[in-house]
Design a protein that fits this description.
Elements (H helix, E strand, L loop, with lengths): L1 E5 L7 H13 L5 E5 L5 H13 L6 H13 L7 H17 L4 H8 L1 H16 L4 E4 L7 E2 L12 H10 L6 E5 L2 E4 L4 E3 L5 H11 L4 E6 L20 E3 H9 L10 H7 L3 E5 L8 E4 L11 E14 L9 H11 L6 E4 L3 E6 L2 H11 L4 E14 L9 H11 L6 E3 L6 E7 L3 H13 L3
Parallel strand pairs: 1-2, 1-8, 2-5, 3-5, 4-6, 8-10, 9-11
Antiparallel strand pairs: 6-7, 10-11, 12-14, 12-15, 13-14, 15-17, 16-17
Helix pairs in contact: 2-3, 2-4, 2-5, 3-6, 8-10, 11-12, 13-14
Length: 440
């Protein structure tokens, strides 16, 4: 068995879905399970419709877009009438109370995947590949109550295995990514772009041969190809490298995708729907050594920085514990941190949470907030063994006229991270790619 996940751009329209059909049909002997995202643009339309409803305005954009897709695919006109009716009622209810809770937003957002799998399964079946749509919660995927970032409950795997064992062997299961249900039957989501995570969780639960992530790029690249024209494919990489890249902004994988695969030791293969013959990137526990000091460059923009300065932390045991207790209470997800005897600098993408924490941290020191920053990360398994690589990286960035405001590099770390201005992303990434990869 293999698990094949297709993202929004891969199922954006009839032309793309025809490619998906061909790819899945060619893998029929490997017992494929298809995990699908919403059609491109539908999730954004759903979120915008929910926000508009909370402001008292009812819009039909997501339903209109989905109807257009149904017409392209020549699906029965009434195929999604149940979904359309449920969504319309939900938006009307939100407009009446003028309140959009995380629970309601998850409910609205879930319709993208629920509608796409039904349309895709219908198209597959009418074009020679027997398929059936499944909401993943009907296959054992029951989650906690963390709306917007839910995770499956312990022991869910046994129910999942039993549910899949009952499915007809001659049908391809087309399963909703991104969504779940809690024990009370309320719809949850695992986080934006979370269909990758759904796929890897299913792959681990079902002991799949591999998990395939089908995207619109030739696997994982040495840099963002929209920034660097010469970005190239990485044939193989280790789990830990890919996990660092995903966390620090690589657009190819959801940050949590690799954790289930790592624990189950199942390879993850990243492939291009538009070029299915390309080998893409295989991510696994052990990878062939790379000739480069680095594997890839990633960046995570729109970061906020909090600087706390106080002489009270000088030689005072437990001071950092107090700081992080405040950050934890405000649910601040810290991405990067640097400390001295009298100051702490840290970054987070959650500006509102950081600003809330700043008010309380101001009682123990002077607090300064800065915004519009980017974490720039150079990732590679050989970094700890290459003398002078840090100096080369910083020299190249400085040569491009980019100021580095923070640095983080742990003992034996496989990532070297820097903080720069958002406006400097293009210059910094290009010069680093030239220095690290152009000569190879």
């Amino acid at each position: 068995m293999i698990v094949m996940k297709f993202g929004g751009s891969s199922v954006a329209n009839r032309g793309q879905i025809e490619k998906v059909l061909s790819i899945v049909d060619s893998a029929r002997e490997r017992a494929p399970v298809v995990v699908s995202s919403a059609h491109k643009g539908i999730t954004d339309a759903l979120v915008n419709a929910a926000k508009a409803a909370a402001a008292g305005e009812l819009v039909t954009t997501p339903i209109d877009l989905q109807r257009q897709l149904l017409a392209q695919l020549e699906c029965p006109v009434d195929l999604l009438d149940d979904c359309f009716g449920e969504l319309s009622d939900l938006l009307r209810g939100i407009s009446l109370v003028k309140e959009l809770s995380p629970r309601s937003l998850d409910y609205v957002s879930s319709f993208g995947e629920r509608m796409s799998v039904r349309a895709i399964a219908d198209f597959f079946t009418r074009n020679g590949l027997a398929a059936r749509a499944h909401d993943v919660w009907d296959l054992g995927f029951i989650t906690d109550d963390a709306f917007g970032r839910a995770r499956p409950l312990a022991g869910w795997e046994a129910n999942c295995q039993a549910a899949f064992a009952r499915l007809p062997a001659n049908e391809v299961a087309v399963v909703t990514g991104f969504v779940g249900k809690n024990r009370e039957g309320e719809i949850t989501t695992v986080g934006r772009n979370g269909s990758d995570l759904t796929a890897s969780l299913l792959g681990g639960a079902l002991a799949a041969e591999e998990v395939q992530i089908w995207t619109d790029t030739d696997g994982v690249m040495t840099a963002d190809p929209s920034v660097v024209d010469g970005a190239r494919n990485i044939p193989q990489m280790r789990f830990d490298e890919a996990a660092e890249l995903a966390y620090f902004g690589s657009r190819v994988l959801h940050p949590s995708t690799l954790l289930p695969a790592m624990s189950s030791d199942i390879p993850v293969r990243v492939l291009n729907t538009n070029r299915p013959a390309h080998p893409g990137t295989v991510i696994q526990k052990v990878a062939a050594p790379s000739p480069n000091a680095a594997t890839s460059i990633a960046y995570k923009e729109r970061q906020s920085v909090l600087v706390l300065r106080t002489t009270r932390m000088f030689g005072q045991a437990g001071f950092l514990a107090r700081v992080f207790e405040i950050l934890g209470r405000r649910e601040v997800d810290v991405d990067m941190i640097s400390t001295s005897e009298v100051s702490i600098s840290l970054t987070s993408a959650d500006r509102p949470a950081l600003e809330a924490a700043a008010d309380q941290l101001a009682t123990i020191g002077k607090v300064e907030l800065r915004h519009g920053k980017t974490i720039l990360a150079v990732v590679g398994q050989h970094l700890p063994a290459r003398p002078g690589i840090g100096a080369q990286v910083l020299g190249a960035v400085a040569g491009a006229g980019v100021n580095v405001e923070m640095i983080s590099y742990g003992m034996d770390s496989i990532n070297f991270t820097m903080l720069i201005d958002d406006a400097d992303i293009g210059r910094a990434v290009k010069v680093l790619h030239e220095m690290l990869f152009a000569a190879v």
